[in-house]
Write a structure and sequence with these properties.
Distance between the termini: 41 Å
CATH superfamily of the largest domain: GAF domain
Shape: elongated
Number of helices: 16
Strand content: 5-15%
Helix content: 55-70%
CATH class of the largest domain: Alpha Beta
Strand order of the largest sheet: 3-2-1-6-5-4
Number of domains: 3
């Protein structure tokens, strides 16, 4: 963490003072800074002792302490055979608190282990900060410290330890899990937030100093171009796919209208929901299964309303619908008589998801021209992306076919034409953004000034 010593010391003093004010039986507080990873050096930042006479706090570090600057590295305080166990090692490695509520049996008292003398009553609490907050994308590539067995620690945790709070108490006034330990834990989260805020503030300050010469010329330009580009990218492809899904829905309806004996997914899902709802009221005694049944009904209704690609719909059935039916059939006898019908319907549902891509069914639509029977399903089952721009032109040609009779045909054509125009300018916008970013990397504000001057002189509307 990037935090200046004076600012960190002031923050730690405020936290110790808050804890001592909250807990009348607390006598002393110390906060240790932990880091950086993987060294995890533990250094005492400050200590505060409550004066018995007037209750004021006396600040300072003890004259002799292993944790006074420069402190101890992880290798020096971690658990290791043949060496006294330390509460600090426990808190840092396990990211858990340590409460010495019986000094005579404190297994992590170094003094007791070495000389047999008990220490005092105290509680130690790690201060945690989320890896993703502190390291961002670099969190996936951290070099973790290792325990004495060589196993990396914190690998399966979402947090890192940035500090440890140690609070001493009057004899026999603290127990594990009591109010005092809970207060310290809650305040440790506050300290973690404050330390992260200080880290962010000083990190930003450093970046501002490094980019001061470039910021005035480039920040507004980058923000302008990125806003335009990202706004287009965020909605345009999903909007095009939504229009294509309408063509997919109309094609499947055309098949069901024209070919006898075909059952579409909606009718199958309605039938499944009827069977489900007929017995749901009898599940009163089993709240878990009631929730499963409700969720299943919602997901079947949602699938019926969506026009997904067959492979997407099949994953929906496999992950959301089949497992819930399987659980209801295994854990409740209510649908036992309908089991074969349910399994048959689930098989019919899977087939219904693919009717739109069945070439034999398409060939049976004799009232449609051959080119329409061939191109409509091919284009309606496309997952549109930036590299499929020619497909959009084919879809527009398809919509111009005189024998393609679907609702809102002209409106769909108009919407897709407008979206196509936006798709076509995205590469240009990306090129402009890359040019600005490259100028930022090279630290050349003059290039940006020339760039915007050329745009204005050429009357570029962007």
């Amino acid at each position: 963490m990037i935090i200046g010593h004076e600012l960190l010391e002031k923050t730690c003093k405020n936290m110790i003072e808050t804890i001592l004010l909250c807990l009348d039986h607390a006598t002393k507080g110390t906060i240790y800074r932990i880091g950086p990873i993987p060294e995890l050096r533990s250094v005492r930042v400050t200590s505060g002792i409550r004066e018995k006479e007037n209750g004021t706090i006396r600040w300072g570090l003890p004259d002799v302490s292993d944790y006074n600057p420069p402190g101890k590295t992880w290798d020096q305080y971690r658990d290791r055979p043949g060496r006294a166990l330390e509460a600090m090692g426990w808190c840092v490695e396990r990211q858990k608190s340590w409460t010495a509520d019986n000094p005579y049996e404190d297994q992590r008292s170094v003094r007791k282990q070495l000389s047999g003398e008990p220490e005092d009553w105290h509680h130690m609490e790690p201060v945690l900060v989320k890896k993703s907050d502190l390291y961002g994308q670099d969190a996936d590539h951290l070099e973790y410290p290792r325990n004495w067995k060589g196993t990396p620690i914190w690998q399966n945790s979402d947090y890192v330890v940035v500090a440890v709070i140690k609070i001493h108490f009057l004899p026999h006034t603290i127990q594990r899990g009591d109010r005092a330990t809970k207060v310290i834990k809650k305040l440790s989260r506050v300290l973690g937030t404050e330390m992260f805020s200080l880290h962010i503030r000083e990190s930003v300050s450093q970046v501002q100093q490094e980019l001061a010469s470039e910021r005035m010329a480039s920040c507004n330009a980058v923000a302008h171009e990125l806003r335009n580009t990202l706004a287009k990218l965020s909605f345009i492809f999903s909007a095009i796919n939504a229009e294509i899904s309408f063509l997919r829905e109309q094609w499947e309806e055309e098949i069901c209208r024209s070919v006898g004996g075909i059952r579409d997914k909606t009718s199958v899902l309605v039938h499944l929901n009827q069977i489900l709802l007929s017995k749901m009221a009898l599940l009163n005694g089993n709240q878990d299964l009631v929730e499963v049944a409700r969720s299943l009904a919602e997901e079947q209704n949602e699938l019926a309303a969506l026009s997904l690609l067959p492979e997407q719909a099949e994953r929906w059935v496999m992950h959301k619908i089949r497992p819930k039916w399987q659980r209801l059939l295994e854990e409740s006898p209510l649908w036992a008589e309908a089991r074969q019908e349910i399994e048959s319907l689930l098989d019919q549902l899977r087939k219904a998801l693919w009717i739109g891509m069945d070439a034999e069914l398409a060939d049976r639509l004799h009232h449609l021209p051959e080119e329409l029977r061939r191109h409509w399903p091919r284009l309606a089952y496309v997952d549109f992306s930036a590299d499929k721009l020619p497909v959009l032109e084919e879809i527009l040609q398809l919509l111009n076919h005189p024998q393609m009779a679907i609702p809102h045909k002209k409106q769909t054509h108009k919407v897709l034409s407008s979206l196509k125009a936006l798709v076509e300018i995205i590469p240009e916008m990306e090129a402009r953004t890359n040019r600005i970013l490259e100028s930022m990397r090279n630290g050349s504000g003059k290039d940006l000034q020339d760039y915007w001057r050329d745009l204005i002189m050429n009357g570029d509307p962007a």
